[in-house]
TrEMBL record:
<protein>
    <recommendedName>
        <fullName>Plasmid pRiA4b Orf3-like domain-containing protein</fullName>
    </recommendedName>
</protein>
<dbReference type="Pfam" id="PF07929">
    <property type="entry name" value="PRiA4_ORF3"/>
</dbReference>
<feature type="domain" description="Plasmid pRiA4b Orf3-like">
    <location>
        <begin position="31"/>
        <end position="182"/>
    </location>
</feature>
<dbReference type="InterPro" id="IPR024047">
    <property type="entry name" value="MM3350-like_sf"/>
</dbReference>
<dbReference type="InterPro" id="IPR012912">
    <property type="entry name" value="Plasmid_pRiA4b_Orf3-like"/>
</dbReference>
Length: 182
């Protein structure tokens, strides 16, 4: 049965290009290990997180926001290529009012992460804040058993704080650093 969103999505002429899995109960015992790197900043700002393997892309977005220290006050989307696909799929928050030629964005809360992150080494881009354009690289590093007593998601590693919100992208961030160091 289609969700209310999926029905609205297809009624507007969009096509769903993914299949919903039938049985995912085995995923409840596993977590994914991801490495997230904020691109174009030197020295590197990065995090390593563990998230439940049954998460959807919305859940992954929230885990990235929390681990990086972002405030989740801007739009976002993931860009990922499925196995055997030539074109990247954009997953995030759809905007039905867009009038440009950009590819549609599929609903992150409808798509399980394992639909695309189904092999070690799979990578995706995660864009946060369409104004400041913070591009992240996300890489699946591991698929491991959950540990009892640990509340997931959890950040298990990383270096350096993320830039302040609305600082003006990479160049603005470097200006903030220069100003603070003087």
């Amino acid at each position: 049965m289609k969700s209310r969103f999926e029905k609205n999505f297809t009624d507007k002429g969009y096509l769903m290009n993914y299949e919903k899995p039938r049985n995912i109960s085995y995923l409840k015992n596993h977590v994914f290990q991801f490495k997230i790197e904020l691109l174009e900043i030197i020295p590197l700002i990065w995090r390593r997180i563990l998230v439940p393997a049954d998460y959807n892309f919305w859940d992954l977005h929230v885990a990235i926001q929390d681990s990086m220290g972002w405030l989740d006050s801007h739009l976002h989307h993931f860009e990922i290529r499925g196995k055997g696909k030539r074109k990247e799929t954009r997953i995030g928050i759809p905007d039905f009012d867009r009038m440009d030629d950009l590819e549609e964005v599929y609903p992150g809360w409808e798509i399980p992460v394992f639909t695309y992150f189904n092999d070690l080494g799979v990578e995706a881009k995660y864009l946060y804040d369409y104004g400041d354009f913070w591009m992240h690289n996300i890489k699946l590093e591991g698929y491991i058993y959950r540990e009892k007593g640990i509340k997931y998601p959890i950040c298990i590693g990383g270096d350096r704080a993320c830039p302040p919100e609305d600082c003006g992208s990479v160049s603005g961030y470097y200006n903030v650093i220069e100003t603070l160091s003087n």
